[in-house]
Amino acid sequence: MNTGKKFYAYLQAGTNTLISSLAILMMPAVVGLLITHAQIVKGLPDFTELVEVVGPSVVNIRTLERAPRGAQQGGVPDDEMQELFRRFFGVPIPNGPNAPRQQRPNRQQEEQPRGVGSGFILTSDGFIMTNAHVVDGADQVLVTLPDKREFKAKIVGLDKRSDVAVVKIDSTGLPAVKIGDVNRLKVGEWVMAIGSPFGLDNSVTAGIVSAKQRDTGDFLPFIQTDVAINPGNSGGPLINMRGEVVGINSQIYSRSGGFMGISFAIPIDEAVRVSDQLKVSGRVQRGRIGVQIDQVSKEVAESLGLSRTQGALVRSVEANSPAEKAGVEAGDIILKFDGRNVEKSSDLPRIVGNTKPGSKSWVTVWRRGAQKELPIVVAEIEPEKVAVTQSQPAEITKPSVTQFFMGLTVGDLSDIQKKDLKLNNGVVVETVTDPAARAGIREGDVITAMSNSEVKDLKSFELITSKLDKSKPVNVLLRRGEWAQYVVIRPSR
Questions:
Q1: Which of 139, 303, 389, 451 shows a CA-CA span of 20 to 30 A to 331?
Q2: Which residues are catalytic?
């Protein structure tokens, strides 16, 4: 009995010693973990120094327009804004809708308030950057500096496609902003905005970068943040913790008209590229090649033999365009342009748009299971896209000979169809049932390729289909009016 108690005591003492030893050994790791955690969680940042450094470079922009005879004053705040000004400043807005009638001036010959926005000083000699939509259509632009000096500004140029504008005031020795590197910007990084929401200038808000390369426009991959941005913030700078401008606050996602936690800023590198052209010529030159494009789905990529989902699907090629002259065809997948990879369809307009018009480039396309390199001379994009009236399709004359395959009944194209669609090859779909109907094929569609092989006529269609495994999916390139698209026919189970 005593022997058992001694053994138990010995065992307990050994266990306690082991635990103590492990605790001593683990202590450095625990301390290191706590130190690492403390290094990560530093608390909220202090923006006061940033405001002092960047604040003097941020300006308030007001625009005026000549009101037509009998027009009401534009840009007058609503009742809630009237109440805001009454509570904070003790007086109603002069000449507002609630002002006594006898105090309202004759506005027939006056320039009336049109809108309020923000901007920032780009160079010390008076060039200021803002949004195009802030100054577009204004008869007069007034810039107010933080020191309350006010200047009439001249619109140097604006670009609606990128929503960037440059205005100039007659002054020197101004505090210009520092331009940051957008490539160094990281998701989760703290950023700050200064602007004039609802006309309340020098307002500071802060948040983090929510996403980069957000596709909301043809030519710009936006920076998404949760910084509070409201009407009037447009054109103001987005600033990193180094006091550098990394974007122009431009858009918000909102169902109410106010901030809802999602804001978008134009990357500053793109904006500077635009502003440089505006300062030189007052407009922006962009390249174009004349194609209508769409996304490449995973299913289509796999069926065409692409190793991964990438590129831009060419749905149509404009007549006499650079793309047509280079030999680009509807149904091609553009993989590269000027040596730059086209990962998704929205990449192509940006790459081509930033290419100097008149320059010679190379376009890499995927066509019927193989890559092709095509030389192309880039043209200049039109200032405004002109709507083209589409011709009515010619009456379809059904061919007398047909061939059936996987729910499709097809026939040769008539001469009228070839002329109307500007096609030399292909077969027209006469009737369609499952499984082709499930794939989205319709009567009247023209099949130009199948299983990465060109369909020239009914005979070639028959030859191609005779070699296919009808138990496996098959990709089909078809034309529907002016548009080309891929579909994948899956056999019935």
A1: 389
A2: 133, 163, 234
Distance in angstroms (rounded) separating the CA atoms of residues 117 and 366: 46
Q: How far is CA 481 from CA 8, 348, 358, 390, in A?
A: 91, 24, 31, 10
Residue 150 has pLDDT above 90, yes or no: yes
Is residue 402 classed as helix, strand or coil in its secondary structure?
strand
Mapped onto helix, strand or coil, the DSSP state of residue 35 is: helix
Q: Which of 129, 122, 239, 245 is nearest to 174 (CA)?
A: 122
Fold classification of 178-281 (topology level): Thrombin, subunit H (2.40.10)
The CA dihedral of 240, 242, 243, 246, to the nearest 10 degrees, is -40
Instruction: Give the integer Cα–Cα distance in Å for 60 and 119.
Output: 6
**Distance between CA atoms of residues 272 and 122, nearest Å:** 9
Whether residue 297 contacts residue 313, with contact meaning beta carbons closer than 8 Å, is answered with: no
Q: Which two structure tokens, joined as six digits, stand for 46?
A: 């202090």
**316: which 2 tokens?**
């149509």
pLDDT of amino acid 15: 55
The rounded percent of the chain whose pLDDT value lies above 90 is: 37
Task: Kindly state the tokens that stand for 242.
Answer: 């180094």
Please state, as a whole number, how many other Cβ atoms lie within 10 Å of the Cβ of residue 418: 16
Q: Where are the alpha helices (DSSP H) in 379-457?
A: 415-421
Q: What is the CATH number of domain 402-489?
A: 2.30.42.10
88 contact partners, CB below 8 Å, separation of at least 6: none
Domain 287-380 adopts which CATH fold?
Pdz3 Domain (2.30.42)
Confidence band of 152 (pLDDT split at 50, 70, 90):
very high
Look at residue 289 and give its three-state secondary structure.
coil
Distance separating alpha carbons of residues 333 and 450, to the nearest angstrom: 15
Q: Whole-angstrom Cα distance, residue 147 to residue 159?
A: 29
Q: Would the pLDDT of 249 be above 90?
A: yes
111-121 and 203-215: which strand pairing? unpaired
**CA pair distance 440, 453, nearest whole angstrom:** 20
Q: How high is the pLDDT of residue 69? A: 52
CA distances to 120, 250, 458 from 56, rounded to whole Å, are: 9, 20, 73
What is the chain's Cα-based Rg?
32
- Which among 165, 141, 138, 163 has a CA at the least distance from the CA of 152? 141
**Helical segments of 90-174, H only:** 132-135
Asked if residues 251 and 222 have their Cβ atoms less than 8 Å apart, the reply is yes
